[in-house]
Amino acid sequence: MDHANTTANPVRRILVASLIGTTIEFFDFYIYATAAVLVFPKLFFPSSSPTAATLASFATFALAFIARPIGAALFGHFGDRNGRKATLVAALMTMGPSTVAIGLLPSYHSIGIFAPALLCLFRFGQGLGLGGEWGGAVLLATENAPEGKKAWYGMFPQLGAPIGFLASSGIFLLLSKTLSDQQFLAFGWRIPFVASALLVWVGLYVRLKITETPDFLKIIEKNDRVKLPVADVFTKHTKAIILGTFATITTFLLFYLMTVFTLSWGTSALHYSKTSYLIAQMISMLFFGLGIPISAVLADKIGRNKMLIIATVSIFIFGLFFSQLFSTGIWVITVIFQVIGMFLMGLTYGPIGTALSEIFPASVRYTGASLCFTLAGILGASLTPFLATTLATKYSLTYVGFYLSFAAAISFVALLAAGSLMKVNAHKD
Questions:
Q1: What mean pLDDT value characterizes the chain?
Q2: What sign has the CA pseudo-torsion 57, 62, 63, 64?
Q3: Got the DSSP string for 122-133?
Q4: Cα gap 41→44, rounded to integer Å
Q5: Quick one: 343 and 212 in the same domain?
Q6: Residue 110 belongs to a domain with what CATH number?
Q7: What pTM, to 2 d.p., does this model score?
Q8: Distance of CA 55 to CAs 59, 108, 377, Å?
Q9: Within 13 A of 169's CA, how many CA atoms are on the CB side?
Q10: Is 407 helix (H, G, I), strand (E, B) or coil?
Q11: Which of 197, 225, 253 corresponds to the end of one domain?
Q12: pLDDT at residue 368, as a whole number
């Protein structure tokens, strides 16, 4: 690998530029999820039925999942054609202002039907930007990495998940302690959305200072740019897109089980207070954050594929004991359950970005990795809380564990098949 990039792109700048966007992404996700439950049904979807208003609010939450693959294809196209740097700046400037705009929106009582319409528009803008953000951030890190440290560099964008969760949870806990319910509804909920402008400014400043990655410069040098990357991915790299998507499903499914489902089930069926369960989740997020660098170090030593296989087998086993650990109603054991689940999440999440980038050649890497990640998000995340709640209610928590283990088995097979693709592209590059 050409090491000239280490002077053009100082290590700290590369890693901050790759981390800042995913931190904003997850910060936005959590504050929107919280507001979709507590605020939006009352301010943007007035209805005689609170349930109908909440469902309408959740529909806007789901919009981002629809927009993400579109963003992955759109920004992936420009990332593979025009470069990683310019596309990352464009993704940030689509995602960031959309988030800030949500915090400034007038309510339904002020502008009527335009309020929910604009909320949908800006939520779609969020999702569109997010679809292009993750893949570019991972490539910025991995394509600037020195030999033997690809997974270590590639884990920095992944750290945005626990950092974003802790930042958003901390802000909401602080607001709940300092503001009354009326104050929170009147203006308090807007603070996190508007405050994200600071993160966006920092991200933009850092990204404008970086230079293009060495891998993309080689594409230009060899005249290897593809006219329509998304078509190339689906026609010439069909195996990679399928295997990459299924290999990543368990990562998303575990995350949404351990955050959305456990919070819902823990505060309803197990009768924990929301505050006590959020504290348990915040503790587990520290172990999520710990698992990411541990898995990255191991992935650089034994290989990304082997590390992901070990993590996936561990998740399969965890699924078999899911019910026993989660159904006790004892808070300390529940914390241990959350810690184990989120630590395993860190082990699978740390190397996944680097692994996905390695199953595609550099000419379509932005598009391919982004599409795998966003499609896995739809399959592994969008229906998980609903399906898990249905299984737990109609049958038992044991079947939720089986659901997780079944997904892990699918990912395991996909990872075994994807190993050869990584080796082929490693030799090409």
A1: 86
A2: positive
A3: HHHHHHHHHHHH
A4: 6
A5: no
A6: 1.20.1250.20
A7: 0.86
A8: 6, 16, 21
A9: 20
A10: helix
A11: 225
A12: 94
